[in-house]
Amino acid sequence: MEKLLYGVEDRPPNLITTTLLSLQHLLAALGGIIAVPLVFGGALKLPADQIVALVNAALLGSGIVTIIQCRGVGPVGIRLPCVMGTSFAFVGAGISVGLEHGVPGILGSSLVGSLVMIIGSFFMPVIRRFFPHTVTSVVVIMIGLSLTPVAVDWAAGGVGSGNYGAVGNLAIAGFVLALVIAFVQWGKGIISASAVVLGIVCGYLLCLALGLIDFTQVREAPVFAIPQPLHFGMSFPVSGIVAMSIAFLVTIVETTGTFMALGAATQTPIRGKRLASGMLCDGVGSAFAAVMSSPPVSTFAQNVGVVSLTGVASRHVVMLTGVMLLAAGLFPVLGALVVTIPLPVLGGAGLMMFATIIAAGIRMLGGSADSRRSNLIIAVSLGCGLAVTVRPDLLSKMPAFVREVFGSGITVGALVAVGLNLLLPGREVEAPEEDMDAVATPLPVTSVAT
Length: 450
Fold this sequence. Notes:
By secondary structure, the chain is mostly helical.
């Protein structure tokens, strides 16, 4: 097992190093955090000022909940390097609610629906036992497989772009990818640890020199703005509460898998109690986000790739990322500046990060029993998860409830793996909570430490 460059409790030697390492997580997450309120705004045809208010609230809420998740406040927070942000898992349900009841309906339904995750957090020690080593390995791989197409679309210029797949886009993405590989392989110390942000900066400078950067959003963004609690008000439609509650149930499965993947990347055994603290933060954080006029939040899987690739597992680093997100919410011009990064630049770095999660999952599978039963669980669950990931239209004729529950490849892969592990003879069982210290050894991760 390779040693991490910075462990969970380690602190980098100075503020400059910490800032560089934190910036990597910000760049990996910011696009996703901003995208969700933009999708809501576009689907509901909101005026520009209301979309800006949604974006600011999402950034501020994500920053505050990230700090709590990393630092921990009493029983709330997993105390690992988790970046929290608005989640696409809620987009389908949110839009359906919003088209009928507007933004107040989305926020009110989210507030009530978050109780599902809050209550569910108290059962996490039991839920944890449904995720033995083989199941966890499958979920980690599915996280990487589900995120990789996102990076590919970024590298090609973005879905719906008129120049999707253009040679120039792929060349820029390839340039950034090559730089990240070089920094990881041959860089030393802070250079290797900051490989992602250095690759993105170099790619950004190249695009700037080629005149590919559009600063319109920066010029139009307000310099300072304070998100107002209950800015849109709230309403509590029964149909909306049911829809968002289902979305929260699905998110419990995805977030459990993400926490397990993060445990592998940080070489930290994830026991039921720690899992419960993280899930409680997700639920409380989503309730707080709703009050702050933001869509619900959840743990970002893409940042697991940053930890796996760089070997930087310090929660103190990601706490600073939370501060940066908070600042971006108060100073929208900062967030607008980051949004100017061309998608191919993010795609080159993202491809490396997300593929690293796949590699970590494959290494984890090496510790699974080599038996017909294990191979069957792995093959079927990955196949079903990939079916939804690469062919999302597969469920287009299904009822809305089915699309909501099974629309994510991560969720499908996890549910199939858990189900097969329960149904097939010779069930693999996670050790009881009190025995975890004796059996839970840190899982291998991809690290750049030398």
